[in-house]
Amino acid sequence: MPPVSADQIQRITGVYLRGVYRLFLVILLAGCQSLPEPVTRQNDVRMDRELRGDSLVVTVHNTVPSPMRVQLTSDAIALDTAFVLAPLSEKPIRVHAPGLDSTSLSSAVRGSLTFGSLDWPVRAETLSLPFPAGRWYRVIQGYYGSFSHNYPFARYALDFALAVGDTVTAAADGMVIGLVDENTAGGNNRKYRDHANYITLFHPQSGLYTQYVHLQPGGSLVALRDSVKRGQPIGLSGLTGFTSRSHLHFNVLVPDSSAGLVSHPAVFEPDVPGGALTQGSRAVRR
Q1: Which of 91, 115, 139 is the last residue of a domain?
Q2: 66-116: per-residue pLDDT in tens?
Q3: Which residue range is the domain that position 75 belongs to?
Q4: Residue 9, in any domain of the structure
Q5: Are 157 and 252 members of one domain?
Q6: What phi, psi does 27 have (nearest 5°)?
Q7: Are 126 and 267 in contact (CB under 8 A)?
Q8: How do beta strands 272-273 and 227-228 pair?
Q9: 1 in a domain, yes or no?
Q10: DSSP assignment of 175-193, as one string?
């Protein structure tokens, strides 16, 4: 083998260094790319504020077929009230507010709007598994899972190993009260938590709420305020939000006095406790 000249070594070294530099730039640019702003608003429930003489009128519009708990507070005026809005209703609250001007309306009143009424009875209901009949999927995370089921809102959630594009079905008859399907980002990092696409259903016959999370972009097959039937296709599984792999995160929720909504144990047809669906087991819908 002939000896390598100094010029050849220099050329080879130059090519190598340029390659390393390009790779460094690619990694740097990828790291600098910011996430798109997540879509988190799941419905059009709203609160309007209007000055009428020396009074402020706050009108809360519940535009979904579920009761809503409302709390209004203010540091600027004497306002601290809580009430429940019936499904598809609105309520005006009039408060004496001398000296309040129109430029400070948006910050004058804070509103907390939460699904559910503590007076609405919660009854046991046997649910369908949230995928089509005749299918089965592995459970990749069960109750109290250490990855992401370790806090009150998700402690009884179940993760099923649906692939991207697999059909998600309603666990019971209900109404669509929340829907997000515009997010595109996802990954195994908590920075993606707010980027999940999901559907929220209310089941008036039982008082339960169910959520179907990590749907693909544009993966909703229903619209806000739609009525759905048990087993009806409602969405397509995906990879959005905080997740290490494609799957369906299914959660049953009930109203709670201190935490808004909290996760609740489920029972699936024919009589399978959700706690029996442990990590690695097969969930079969007959």
Answers
A1: 115
A2: 999 999 998 888 888 999 999 999 999 999 888 787 777 778 888 999 999
A3: 46-115
A4: no
A5: yes
A6: -65, -40
A7: yes
A8: unpaired
A9: no
A10: EEEEEE-----EESSGGGG
Pair 137, 268 in one domain: yes
Same domain, 139 and 268: yes
**Phi, psi (rounded to 5 degrees) for 23:** -60, -40
pLDDT in tens, 251-282: 999 999 877 999 999 999 999 999 999 999 99
Q: How far is CA 193 from CA 41, 190, 255, in A?
A: 14, 5, 22
Q: Residue 220: beta bridge partners?
A: 235
Give the tokens for residue 223.
């619209």
Which helix (H) or strand (E) segment holds residue 9: the answer is helix 6-32
Residues 188 and 108 in one domain: no
The number of distinct structural domains making up the chain is 2
Q: Are residues 162 and 108 in the same domain?
A: no
Q: What is the pTM of this model?
A: 0.86
Around Cβ 278, how many Cβ atoms within 10 Å? 13
Rounded to 10 degrees, the C-alpha dihedral 90/92/93/95 comes to 160
Last residue of a domain, one of 115, 150, 176: 115
Cis previous bond, 152, omega within 30 = no
- Distance (Å, rounded) from C-alpha 201 to C-alpha 175? 5
Please answer whether residues 123 and 205 qualify as being in contact, where contact means their C-beta atoms are separated by less than 8 angstroms: yes
Residue 144: which region, alpha, beta or left (left: phi > 0; alpha: psi -120 to 50)?
A: left
What parts of the chain have a pLDDT lower than 50? 1, 4, 6, 8-9, 12-17, 19-21, 23-32
